[in-house]
Specification:
This protein has 209 residues and is an alpha+beta fold. Helix content is 52%, strand content 9%. Strands 2-1-3-4 form a four-stranded mixed sheet, with helices on one face. Helix 1 runs antiparallel to helix 6, helix 1 packs across helix 8 and helix 4 packs parallel to helix 6.
């Protein structure tokens, strides 16, 4: 039994969808951002960084969404969220997981939280630079998917596609959302058609996108 501490629509989404893909029993614990619950003493005892998600595994709290995705994929190989050890596709999986974390999640952090750079909102030059960085990632990924998709590893959906779809969703209100790139939109449509995505949206009371 797992326990996922989550907030709807945040980085906990990919861990929640992975749990649904796996079919393992789990419970949900809402971390209510409106009540600043992520900074409450009992939550900070689980994750001193005050961020979601936290996944309790065998009684131990673990954090960082990409790491949690990897943990679940390795603990439940039958779910096919990661290629098996020794398969060259596993190395590609690891590459994409790190790339998405470093290139997109870090840029998003600055896009959505300008106060972390000391400003209530970004100066136009910083805002434009972050937009170019994120859109450059979409262009690179779209080219890769157009050449060898529809998924990041080719013909089969894996955990990194769940991660990418979550990150694409975060762009929906940006000046140019990720779904304006055709191969990315195709991948998003495929992942959004999965029962796990539909159940995730139902449980977290999210719109389909």
């Amino acid at each position: 039994m797992y326990t996922l501490y989550y907030a709807p629509g945040t980085a906990s989404m990919v861990v929640h969808q992975a749990l649904l893909e796996i079919g393992a029993p789990y419970t949900l614990q809402l971390v209510d951002f409106k009540q600043d619950a992520q900074h409450a003493p009992d939550y900070l005892a689980l994750n001193p960084s005050g961020k979601v998600p936290v996944l309790v595994i065998d009684g131990q709290p673990r954090s960082e969404s990409v790491a949690l995705l990897l943990m679940l994929a390795e603990r439940h190989p039958e779910a096919g969220l990661i290629p098996p050890a020794g398969d060259p596709a596993r190395e590609a999986w690891q590459q994409w997981a790190v790339y998405l974390s470093n290139s997109l999640m870090s840029a998003y952090r600055l896009w959505f939280y300008p106060q972390e750079l000391g400003d209530a909102e970004h100066p136009p030059i910083v805002h434009a630079a972050l937009q170019r960085q994120i859109e450059g990632v979409w262009t690179l990924l779209d080219t890769h998917l157009a050449q060898g998709g529809p998924y990041l590893l080719g013909a089969s959906c894996s955990g990194v596609d769940l991660l990418l779809t979550m990150l694409m969703r975060w762009s929906r209100n940006m000046p140019r959302p990720a779904t304006e790139w055709p191969a990315l939109r195709r991948l998003a449509d495929l992942v959004r058609a999965r029962p796990s995505w539909q159940k995730l949206c139902e449980l977290e009371a999210l719109s389909a996108w």
